[in-house]
Fold this sequence. Notes:
single chain, mainly alpha, Serine Threonine Protein Phosphatase 5, Tetratricopeptide repeat, 2 domains, elongated
Amino acid sequence: MNDTNQTAGRQGGSSAQDARIDQCEARINEVEREIKLTKKTSWLGMLNLVVSILVGLGALYGFLQLQGVVHDTKRDIEIKEALEQVWEELGGDLGAPHVRHERETDRARLGRAEAKIRTVLMLDEENPTALRYMGILKIREQQLDEAIEFLKFSVSAARLRSDNRALARALCCLGSALDAMGDTEEALRTYREAIETQPGYCLPMFNMGNTLRHLNRPDEAREAFLSASACPDVRAEALTNLGDLYCDLSLWNEALEAYEGAIEADPSLPGPHRGIERVLAENGEAD
């Protein structure tokens, strides 16, 4: 009896062991399936993540384009090249010392400049530089009302883009246009705003000196010319005009010193040479 019970126990233990083995094998198979599924899901998840990132970047780029933060490179190059050509045709900003006066009546040049400006505005209708150039062009054509409108648009566009460089230049040109219209006080206010916007930009200070001289405000004009003369770009012209101001006041020694400083800055500039001749003539020292 005992032998029979022992044999049955061994057979029962063997069956239980087989059952546990089957359970382990089933669990192993289940784990393997889970691992395969997890790998597949991970790859799909990574793929979805990459796609989501690309879509997000595309949406961000589109948003930044709308905001004017980034632009199409080809369009930027086209705009830059067109504006460089316009600058050559116009010869410089309003009030700039080196603007050649014959350009003001050269209709062919102005026509080419206007066509280029309109091309830029078709690509970027609020381009502050193109709007400023259109204002300069209208001044050259003696259309002062239109010029002031374009220059005001340029100021607004530069403010919207937080572009202080473009804003200072637009304000400087607007000041020159207002001065040409006879609104000298508003012109002076605009020049001062341009100086505050970009302190290192000296053309508005130079232009302000000219306006103050014509308004017979010599002390203020003197300070403006002296400030402008600190900038290499307009030093020779500022000292020349300072010499002319001293001549207005019969301050001959001061005038001579200013003219000599102008010649030192730019020997090719004719104005200070004529100024020295005037000083010598006034003092009976001319040849």
